[in-house]
Write a structure and sequence with these properties.
The chain is mainly α. Helices cover 72% and strands 3% of the residues. The chain is flat. The relative contact order is 0.07.
């Protein structure tokens, strides 16, 4: 595939893909006319690189660990430094904290959605019985949702 297709499939700009090549993170083949030719595996590789960059790893560290990510059962680092270990430990801790925060946010949103759905069901039921929803019923369900979300966040 050409650089434009890889850019489209990964959401990375052509310029960024050329930068990845310059940083020796990807190595496309070349066609007879000199155009870059990318294989299907480059899609996954670019997505890995983007994820590692988003996690805060510098390209020099990514370049060193990419070979290990292709074959996780045969991890070997040539020239492993204490700096690299420290960076990876910090990034692992940072990702764990982000996952914990995202999990709490997801759970709070799920609780809120559950309450909103109950409120809608109550609204429908009350509306069918009375032809209108009382403000007290809505206030009670909304207050419960806010209290429950606050409890989850704490």
């Amino acid at each position: 595939m050409k650089i434009g297709e890889l850019a489209e499939r990964t959401g990375a700009s052509r310029r960024l893909l050329r930068y990845y090549e310059e940083q020796q993170l990807i190595s496309p083949g070349r066609s007879d006319n000199g155009y870059r030719e990318y294989a299907e595996f480059h899609v996954g590789r670019v997505m890995q690189i983007k994820g590692l960059l988003d996690a805060g790893l510098p390209t020099r560290i990514i370049r060193q660990i990419l070979p290990c990510l292709a074959q996780p059962r045969s991890i070997y680092f040539d020239g492993l430094t204490p700096e690299m270990v420290a960076i990876l430990e910090r990034e692992h801790d940072h990702l764990t904290q982000r996952i914990d925060c995202l999990t709490r946010n997801r759970d709070s949103i799920a609780d809120y959605l559950e309450t909103v759905r109950r409120m809608q069901a109550a609204d429908d039921a009350i509306g069918h019985v009375n032809g209108d929803v009382t403000g007290d019923a809505v206030d009670q369900v909304t207050g419960d949702a806010i209290d429950h979300a606050a409890d989850r966040a704490a």
